[in-house]
């Protein structure tokens, strides 16, 4: 019975969020069990181009370090904000969501070559948080019960938190920059005088991922609880 309940809850997670978070957890588990090492996963343009180790283009987004506070912190934020985007502004638009992943990953990989980062998963998480926060500007957040602010400030608060922990903020700045590029091209520029839509999801992605019918029994995660935990709880203004 417990297995069936867990399986049902797992299958109710939207497909892209489920696939990505599962891949991240399995990759970390494989490293912990010493089945693979981080040296086989990290982003290295020379090995990719000269030795054709193309898997590094993907695996560097899947490893968040050994199991510990930093890993759990990143996994919680990745799961929550990835799921809320997929169930919110990308509801019924799985192909567009996958295209956002591909666009963000490509841009981040290009930028990553110039900032000497070997793992880009945390920056990708910040990108997701940034896009969600800009699309939900009226949500008030609570961080660790200490700070109250509106959602668009969340990526900057997380960057400050990284700074307090002694981590490099280059990762956060990269995620914010890529998130802003996507947000501007997708949500801002098309609505400007003389603007237009530059980002168009390829037809092949729509054929592969978009389905005409939705599951009537599907229960989305409420966006009214954006942080999900004490460090990221929130509520909509006027709600």
TrEMBL record:
It is found in: Endoplasmic reticulum membrane. SUPFAM superfamilies: Rhomboid-like (SSF144091). It holds the Pfam family DER1. GO terms for cellular component: endoplasmic reticulum membrane. Keywords: Endoplasmic reticulum, Membrane, Transmembrane, Transmembrane helix. InterPro entries: DER1 (IPR007599), Rhomboid-like_sf (IPR035952). The chain crosses the membrane at residues 55-79, 100-133, 153-185. It is a multi-pass membrane protein. Its main location: endoplasmic reticulum. GO terms for biological process: ERAD pathway. Belongs to the derlin family. Functional component of endoplasmic reticulum-associated degradation (ERAD) for misfolded lumenal proteins. May act by forming a channel that allows the retrotranslocation of misfolded proteins into the cytosol where they are ubiquitinated and degraded by the proteasome. This is Derlin. It comes from Culter alburnus (Topmouth culter). The lineage of its organism: Eukaryota, Metazoa, Chordata, Craniata, Vertebrata.
């Amino acid at each position: 019975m417990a297995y069936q309940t867990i399986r049902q809850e797992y299958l109710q997670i939207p497909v892209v969020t489920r696939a990505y978070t599962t891949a991240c957890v399995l990759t970390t588990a494989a490293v912990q069990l010493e089945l693979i090492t981080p040296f086989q996963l990290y982003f290295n343009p020379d090995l990719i181009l000269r030795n054709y180790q193309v898997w590094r283009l993907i695996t560097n987004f899947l490893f968040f370090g050994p199991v510990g506070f930093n890993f759990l912190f990143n996994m919680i934020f990745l799961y929550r904000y990835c799921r809320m985007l997929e169930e919110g502004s990308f509801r019924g638009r799985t192909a567009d969501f996958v295209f956002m992943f591909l666009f963000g990953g490509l841009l981040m990989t290009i930028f990553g070559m110039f900032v000497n980062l070997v793992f880009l998963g945390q920056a990708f998480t910040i990108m997701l948080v940034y896009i969600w926060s800009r699309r939900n500007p009226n949500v008030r957040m609570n961080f660790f019960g200490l700070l109250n602010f509106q959602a668009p400030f969340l990526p900057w608060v997380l960057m400050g938190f990284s700074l307090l922990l002694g981590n490099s903020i280059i990762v956060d700045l990269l995620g914010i920059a890529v998130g802003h590029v996507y947000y501007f091209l997708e949500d801002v520029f098309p609505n400007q005088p003389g603007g237009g839509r530059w980002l168009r999801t390829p037809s092949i992605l729509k054929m592969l991922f978009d389905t005409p019918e939705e599951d009537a029994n599907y229960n989305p995660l409420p966006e009214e609880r954006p942080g999900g935990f004490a460090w990221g709880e929130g509520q909509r203004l006027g709600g």
